[in-house]
Amino acid sequence: MALYFFDVRDDNRLYPDDQGTEMDGLKAARTEAFAALADYVKEIVPTENRRRVAIEVRNEKSKPLLKAVMIFEVEVLGDS
Amino acid sequence: MISNPPPGNWLLKTLSAEDQALVTQHLERVSIKRGDILEAAGEPIPYVYFPDEGLVSVVARMQDGKPVEVGMVGREGMTGASVVLDDFLALNEVRVQIGGAAVRIPSAVLRRLVSKSPSLHAVCLRYVQVLISQVAQTAVAAAHLTVQARLARWLLMVQDRVGSDQFSLTHELLAMMLGVRRPGVTVAMHMLEGEHLIRSTRANVQIVDRDGLEALASTSYGIPEGLYRRLFPNANVFGGPDRSKPASS
Fold first, then answer.
1. pLDDT digits (tens, 9 = 90+) for B214-238
2. Structure pTM?
3. Rounded to an integer, what distance in angstroms lies between the CA atom of residue A16 and that of residue B210?
4. Which residues of A touch B (CB under 8 A)?
5. Helical residues (DSSP H) of chain B, grouped into ranges
6. CA-CA distance, B47 to B109, in Å (whole number)?
7. Cβ-count burial of B193 within 10 angstroms (0-12 exposed, 13-18 middle, 19+ buried)?
8. What dihedral angle (degrees, nearest 10) is formed by the CA atoms of A7, A9, A10, A11?
9. Contact B186 A17 (CB under 8 A)
């Protein structure tokens, strides 16, 4: 088990994780990051036409380990 | 064994003098510590606890062990719903989340007492009714609310039960209890903090704006609390909005 930190970056807004979570290796952390991203985008209503949400995983020494990114793109094709 | 009714637990305080006399001689004061398992799923229940400090969770698990909190008990209630419903095995795990103090009574004794005193049994059953309502609202919240709103509801419920606007809990525990991924909790906490509803430091949460949290939790908070007020008019313990009537569609 190791401590992983999951920072969320929603466009330019950063939600840093200051507690970390014990996880069973990077593979588990990777699964967590992707699943969390999917959970998160379910809950946001994008008001802009493009939005980028990322979860950045780092270790205890703040070394970046991976980044999971999801990009929303809305194209308005007509107005009624 | 203790000689006086404990001051802390609201349910015990609502008992009639006769029922208090019946129960009190069998009560034993104990401290409860975070992580203590008061009931194990599928196992006989040794004691029924009436907390007066701290917080106890009813935790249901998937077959692989993944937990989610389905009920919360503090100074307003009691553990051991099965016992008063004439079962003797625990449906779920009951574990201490925030340490404190409680009084407890052996399950067999409580079973005997409720068969002797219909008024004592009625108090226990009414509380189980409130608990059922709470579990239903937890299901509604899990199905329809954002993590942020569920977190607001959860914090209000904790504050009611521990009687303090400050308590210690980790994001990891919160994620486990709400059945959400860790990063979701981190974001939700930051959002509540950004709106000045809470203050959060490492493993510690302080409620700053209770009204704001109630607005956010919306109708997911208040129905069991209103029911409690209706069934225990003398207890007059929960604050919060009156949502004792079900929401109309």
1. 999 988 899 999 999 999 988 867 7
2. 0.88
3. 24
4. 6-8, 10, 15-19, 21-22, 32-33, 35-37, 39-40, 43, 55
5. 10-13, 17-24, 81-84, 107-116, 118-144, 147-162, 171-178, 182-194, 210-217, 223-231
6. 9
7. middle
8. 180
9. yes
Please indicate, yes or no, if residue A13 is contained in any of the structural domains.
yes
Give Cα A56 distance to the centre of its chain.
6
Beta carbons of A32 and B172 less than 8 Å apart: no
Is B187 within 8 Å of A35 when comparing Cβ atoms?
Answer: no
Q: Tell me what ipTM this predicted complex has.
A: 0.80
pLDDT tens track for A17-57 = 988 988 999 999 999 999 888 888 888 776 788 889 999 99
Which value, in Å, is the radius of gyration of the alpha carbons in chain A? 15
Decide if A80 is inside a domain.
Answer: no
* d(C-alpha B245, C-alpha B206), whole Å: 30
Helix or strand run (H / E) with residue B101: strand B93-106
Is residue A33 domain-resident? yes
Total structural domains within chain A: 1
**Number of neighbours of residue B65 by Cβ within 10 angstroms:** 6
The pLDDT tens digits of the residues spanning B138-193 come to: 999 999 999 999 999 999 999 999 888 898 888 888 898 898 988 889 889 999 99
Q: CA-to-CA distance for B107 and A31, rounded, in angstroms? A: 43
Which two tokens mark B100? 């404190």
Quick: pLDDT tens for B13-43: 999 999 999 999 999 999 999 999 999 999 9
Q: Which domain holds residue A25?
A: 2-73
Domains in chain B with CATH codes: 10-140 (2.60.120.10), 145-221 (1.10.10.10)
The Cβ of residue B204 has, within 10 Å, a number of other Cβ atoms equal to: 12
